[in-house]
Amino acid sequence: MSDLETFRSETKAWLEANCPAEMREPARDEADIYWGGRKATFSSDAQKQWFEVCRDKGYTVPAWPTEYGGAGLAPAEAKVLRQEMAAIGARPPLSSFGIWMLGPALLKFGTEEQKKHFLTQIARGEIRWCQGYSEPGSGSDLVSMQTFGEDKGDSWTVNGQKIWTSYADHADWIFCLVRTNKDDKYQGITFMLFDMESKGVSTKPILLISGSSPFCETFFDDVSVPKSYGENIPGYVGEINRGWDVAKYLLGHEREMISGMGGGEHTAAIGAAMNRHSAKTGDELDPMLRGDLAMFDVDALAFTAMSEKFMDEMKAGKGHPAQPNMMKYVGTELNKRRHELMMTTSGSRSLEWESEETSGGKPSKNWLRTKANSIEGGTSEVMLNVISKRILDLPGA
Amino acid sequence: MPLFHNEDQAMLADTARQFMAEEGNTTKQLRHWRDRDCPDGFGHAIWKQMGELGFTGILVSEDDGGLGMGHVEAGIVLEEIGRNLTPSPFLTSSVLAATALGKGSNDLRGRYLPGLILGESVYAVAVDETAKHRPEKITTKAEKSGNGFKLTGKKSFVVQGASADMLVVAARTSGSDGDDDGITLFAVPKDAANMSQEPVRLVDSSVASHVTFDGVDLDGDAVIGEVDGGREVLNAMLNAGRIGAAAEGVGVASGAMDMTTDYLKQRKQFGKLIGEFQALQHRAAHLYSEVEIARAVTIKAQQLLDAESENADLMISVAKAKVAKAAGLSVKEGVQMHGGIGMTDEYDIGLYMKRDRALQEFLGDAYYHAGRVAELSGY
Questions:
Q1: Contact between residue B262 and residue B223 where contact means Cβ atoms under 8 Å apart
Q2: Same domain flag for B129 and B86
Q3: Which pLDDT tens digit goes with each residue over B77-110?
Q4: From A209's CA, which of A2, A66, A202, A216 has a CA 20 to 30 Å away?
Q5: Residue A38 lies in a domain
Q6: Can you tell me the ipTM of this complex?
Q7: Within a domain: residue B1?
Q8: Rounded to a whole number, what is the distance in Å from the CA of A394 to chain B's nearest CA?
Q9: B343 and B301 in one domain?
Q10: Which residues lie closer than 8 Å to A71 by C-beta, 6 or more apart?
């Protein structure tokens, strides 16, 4: 048996012994997702147990080095773990922007002490992070952001406002883009790290058309941000005034992550399921709708192949570096179309906003939520700009 | 298997790209033969050259003197054919007919494959009987007659039929029009008595034939595969042809897109390069995405077919439909973004539009294959 096959059988056995049955059911709502942090509570004993065994084995962040709280798995082993978890439907033990966003930034740009300090907290689910990027006047044109940190020697005094801060009202710390030089647009931003309990930080949730409030407005009123949290633990990532490099790296990473979802349920074919659904409710599938579903399935299955090719090329170091922008553009547009077709197929039932039958209006709320897919993390229009400039090399601004 | 070309395949792609760009370009081939009103619609010299390079026998087994490669490799050649709009019998002879013949008797393979490999023989396939691709319905009859069969019926739009030394004909030997069973494939030589052809020039300057069989006598050894069990051979042949047509379509889509993006970087209006206008940039970027996806699903389907996967049928139809949409978009955007000169015969962009239209129709358009995706998915 190869080492990898040994690892697979060990992993299977470990999951069988340690993943509670409840944690093998798909998450039904927000409470089923464990985000960690100082204010976190577990919604069930099973959730707690599953999180703790994973934390102790480094499986909240399996591919991170063991000295930062990970399991130090090689990419092939991490893939096996993902596959085996997917095979039994195991939920992620811990979800967090620390794992998805700040972690990769620290791994690439952080000091050794910074990594030990912050990554370990993330891996152990002790600190929940949020991301301070967009501002009311700076959405797609992010680099125009104005939140300013005045240099006070050992610290900055930060004033300004962020918007679309995901779960800011539940977060413990924020990684935040702050202007530290007003004369240099690109090389005048610092990627700061600070506590959301600092004096002068306040948050206000934004009610969305989907009825939920996953995003906040975040206000900074004379917030003091230290330049250091200990020896070789800077209060910022990378260099002062070079935070845009970190932000750009993370935006690329985010698009890659979103586009990596292409192989999953988000873009898979739906025609057969919609047909079964119609048959069950006694509605016959409209022939025109059947045609649209078939055309959607063609696009969705073709995109699944594209995702596979994209991942294969990335692993082999091939493919254009701007390709994640294309994947993000197509993947999110497909997901919006998918939910439009699901709404149409279910007819008036899908309009119910509160009913038990729809688990509290899930179809309509999910449908509305997808509309943000092509806005957040770079709008479709920005993706098309990037493709035309970086891949097609078209001229101009 | 990763979804990109391995080293050997990348080398083949380099060879094919260089050869088609030098020898298969529109000046030397498509326009040359079109302007001379060539009754074949292609040149025999380039066919022989493809034989010398080994392209002709890519799908023929090594035992039969070919290269014994797969659909990924055939697709590499076809993509370059598409990119250069090179008219040739490659798709009909080396992909469709070669796949059918590969399932034929020793005698048939010995009779027809050597000429194909040399690039000397041309073969066509006669399946459809109407203006749309409907292989489910075959009414041409082959009735038992002595030791052989008597063939009666009509076939429509047989591409390169009049140039072919042999036609692979799908006929009904039992059952009724829509049955799966009861189909038999025959290798019918061009000089068969009581066969007549009426060639028609198509929009892309290729030539197709309407073929009439008025009691054509065939020996029993003209049968390819099993009598009444021809549906399996027919499906294998159609799968090969469909994914081949998709690969050629990817080439057409890429060629038209490259021409268009080049033009956006040259043409000035309002004192600017038109490629500076965001209205055109976004359309070009969307087109790029669609063409990349079409290429990805084509390789996926080629690999599945080479691996004899049970998912091959589905992904081939996905690929044929997706390529049809992407290539259709590419040529239409191409002509529009070229403006007035896109309508002139002098520019190749219009030739891409014409070839795409013919390829869309060949072996099933996007509607046919999307419908097949629905059926294979169970709705």
A1: no
A2: no
A3: 999 999 999 999 999 999 999 999 999 999 999 9
A4: A202
A5: yes
A6: 0.96
A7: no
A8: 6
A9: yes
A10: A57, A58, A59, A61, A62, A63, A64
